[in-house]
Design brief:
Number of domains of chain A: 2
Oligomer: heterodimer
Shape of chain B: globular
Structural class of chain B: alpha/beta
Shape of chain A: globular
CATH topology of the largest domain in chain A: Rossmann fold
CATH class of chain B: Alpha Beta
Helix content of chain A: 25-40%
Strand order of the largest sheet of chain A: 7-6-5-8-9
CATH architecture of the largest domain in chain A: 3-Layer(aba) Sandwich
CATH class of the largest domain in chain A: Alpha Beta
Structural class of chain A: alpha/beta
Strand content of chain B: 25-35%
Helix content of chain B: 25-40%
Largest sheet of chain B: 5 strands, parallel
Number of domains of chain B: 1
Strand order of the largest sheet of chain B: 3-2-4-5-6
Distance between the termini of chain B: 15 Å
Number of helices of chain A: 11
Distance between the termini of chain A: 25 Å
Number of strands of chain B: 8
Radius of gyration of chain A: 19 Å
Strand content of chain A: 5-15%
Largest sheet of chain A: 5 strands, parallel
Radius of gyration of chain B: 16 Å
Order of helices and strands of chain A: HEHEHEHEHEHEEHEHHEHH
Chain lengths: 320, 187
């Protein structure tokens, strides 16, 4: 039998096996029924406490984790630290130790620096779930993307996936590349030369290709994943103007027509309509952006359930 | 978890013919008790309650000419021992696609032992609505002395008083090579 996910922390996709990933996705599939009930709540994590520790702004991910915890009957506490103790001089380690002293069962953490969840996992007795660390990983996003793909394509193995946009700064891209190649998909990435590292194919052992033109990545794709252009980086001169970006790299119907007829479009949100994705594409039946949000809650329920479960779950390796 | 392969079979309680007759009798008793199949909703408890429930549904259909509603419950999320069982167990899907309000629910499981599984199943049912009645049908009842909750079965295939060290295994062709019920022990 395949070894299912038995870790205490979810720090990234990179250190997971295909069996562990499939185990999480299967669990999520079982959970999806709960969100369709009239009473969307099960008593499973009653008495457990989940702290959402967000050092970066987030609405979607934080709400999604909060709903996931509440639907499992856990108590969820949200802390946004952009302007609290850290600005008063407290170190990350002290913040973590203080939270740990309140004995939470799980800490969901987002931070602008890569590796923060891993550091936290070393000192905390609680399970740690990475909700995005710098440009490193965003594992639950990749899992919900995979779930969306699986629901619509019934498989992941053998699919061609194009990831388009700001690859270099994207934790979503990295987690997705790890996940998709582990499950046997072929991934092509494309975007402005300044935003796609030319030697990026070395991130994984195989099945990752860097394309010079967006069209080359999209041609024949089963899945087109569009990344958000981070407008806040616009003055850093990665590309001349938003308008130029949209002309050369934006997903229009013409570009999408290069993909397979039944190709699906994903976007991790929040999207900039008319920049990285044309409005008519975003609103078309091929766009599964709202499905992604829906499955986000389900996947996070599965992750919280698996990570907080029982007394003997393994402590994850923290060197991932 | 018990390694099922290391168990030694002490005695065989039912072969496939006897199981078939027991299931038929359960189906007739359910129909008789409830005056037909009209409001019946047969719900199998994962895992081995599911094939048994399917067989009861088929039998009721052949008896009454009406196919009762049918669903599946996975009780994992309602277990009372999640904090002690080690890593969290695998969750499978609950499938109650028809409204349970006002229906007569018959929960079906292979073995009634402590009653805790049934408690979990009932709690889950109540999250789905307000059934008119909930009844319990089991293929094997291990006897009242093992019960840890005030729960009894309405329909019993066979009452088998057992010792605590003994393990009852209901083997079904859906999951096992054979159809049989046996008493097993750890070597």
């Amino acid at each position: 039998m395949e070894k299912p996910f038995r870790r205490r922390d979810l720090l990234g996709i990179r250190s997971l096996s295909a069996a562990e990933i499939n185990g999480i996705l299967d669990t999520a599939e079982s959970f999806s029924e709960i969100n369709a009930r009239e009473i969307k709540k099960v008593p499973t994590l009653r008495g457990k406490t989940v702290i959402n520790l967000f050092f970066e702004n987030s609405t979607r991910t934080r709400t999604s984790f909060e709903l996931a915890a509440k639907r499992l009957s856990a108590d969820a506490v949200n802390i946004s630290i952009s302007s609290s103790s850290v600005s008063k001089g407290e170190t990350l380690l002290d913040t973590a130790l203080n939270l740990d002293a309140m004995q939470p069962d799980c800490i969901v953490v987002r931070h602008s620096s890569a590796g923060v969840p891993h550091q936290l996992a070393k000192v905390s007795k609680a399970a740690v779930v990475n909700a995005g660390d710098g440009a490193n990983e965003h594992p639950t996003q990749a899992l919900l993307d995979a779930m969306t793909i699986r629901e619509h394509k019934k498989k992941i193995k053998g699919l061609n996936v194009a990831i388009v946009g700001d690859i270099i700064h994207s934790r979503v891209a990295r987690s997705n590349i790890h996940l998709l190649t582990k499950l046997g998909a072929k991934v092509k990435v494309a975007g402005p030369g300044t935003l796609v590292p030319s030697d990026f194919q070395h991130l994984v052992e195989k099945d990752l290709e860097v394309c010079n033109h967006v069209e080359d990545a999209i041609r024949g794709a089963d899945v087109v994943m569009i990344l958000r252009i981070q407008r806040e980086r616009q003055d850093s001169a990665y590309f001349p103007t938003l308008r130029e970006y949209s002309i050369h790299y934006g997903l229009t119907n013409d570009r999408l027509n290069l993909a397979k007829k039944d190709a699906i479009v994903l976007h991790p949100g929040p999207m900039n309509r008319g920049i990285e994705i044309a409005s008519d594409v975003a609103d078309s039946s091929r766009s599964l952006i709202l499905d992604q949000v829906k499955y986000g809650v389900t996947v996070r329920m599965a992750v919280l359930y698996l990570a907080t479960g029982g007394a003997t779950a393994d402590r994850s390796d923290t060197n991932n | 978890m018990t390694d099922e392969n290391s168990l030694v079979e002490k005695s065989r309680i039912m072969d496939s013919a006897r199981m078939k007759r027991a299931v038929s009798r359960l189906a007739s008793e359910i129909v008789e008790e409830n005056h037909g199949a009209k409001e019946l909703y047969i719900v199998g408890i994962r895992r081995r309650g599911v094939p048994l429930a399917e067989r009861i549904v088929d039998k009721i259909e052949s008896l009454e000419g009406v196919r009762p509603l049918y669903g599946i419950i996975d009780i994992t999320l309602y277990r009372d021992d999640l904090s002690t069982v080690g890593a969290n167990p695998v969750v499978n899907r609950t499938e109650l696609n028809e409204d349970i309000d006002g229906k007569i629910i018959v929960l079906v499981d292979d073995v009634l032992y402590t009653g805790r599984t049934i408690r979990a199943a009932m709690d889950q049912l109540m999250d789905f609505g307000r059934p008119k009645k909930v009844q319990l049908a089991v293929l094997i009842d291990r006897g009242r002395e093992h019960r840890e909750l005030p729960i009894q079965a309405d329909f019993v295939g066979k009452l088998v008083p057992t010792k605590q060290a003994e393990i009852i295994r209901v083997m079904l062709k859906e999951y096992d090579d054979i159809e049989a019920v046996g008493i097993f022990e750890r070597p």
